[in-house]
Write a structure and sequence with these properties.
Layout lengths: L1 H17 L9 E4 L10 E4 L5 E9 L2 E8 L5 E4 L3 E4 L3 E5 L6 E7 L10 E2 L1 E5 L2 E10 L2 E9 L8 E6 L2 E5 L1 E7 L7 E4 L2 E4 L4
Antiparallel strand pairs: 1-7, 2-3, 3-4, 3-7, 5-6, 8-15, 9-15, 10-11, 11-12, 11-15, 12-13, 13-14, 16-17
Length: 197
Amino acid sequence: MYIKFVLACAIFLYVHRFSDALIINGYYWRVFDGEIPHDAVIAGSDVNGLPVYIGQILYGDKLLPAKIYYNDNKAYFAWGTEQSSDSNVKILCSPTPEKLQWVKTKKNEVHMFINKHLISGGYEPSYTIYIGRSFYKGETLPGRVRTGERASQNLGLYISSIGKEIIFDSFEILTYEPDAVEVTTEHCHKAALLMHN
């Protein structure tokens, strides 16, 4: 696990220092400097209907998903309570956002996604971290999905809201579908994209 952490930190620091974006499977993390890039991935919306984006933050020995509000230079994330930072922050971007799909799931079903490419959200010791979202108090908010080696270790979706950490057993998880085409439908009170065969 230490090796995974060192590797995650090395990749984060390399991308942060030497390149604006490392493209992997049609999505990538850019350095977030307070300006929303034109290709930033929208995860949901706030109470005013403005977009909420997917961030990633280096926090101690963890690389955690976060939320970034429109017109805000900070990233907010859940770690016991709501935390925020404006340093060591990335923002998820894609030239083809229609290939990023939100799929409904439950915490004890995440390990059954064997034919789906789940988007990694970072690193946390003893867990695999993915990106999820849920609707809470008028907002559709992204956060971290904590999974372990067994279904009993899948702890659900952690989001932050109004100074608190909230945990969901049912949520949507972000996947990458290379053959997806754009079709809109309603999920979490926000238009989403589906795969069409």
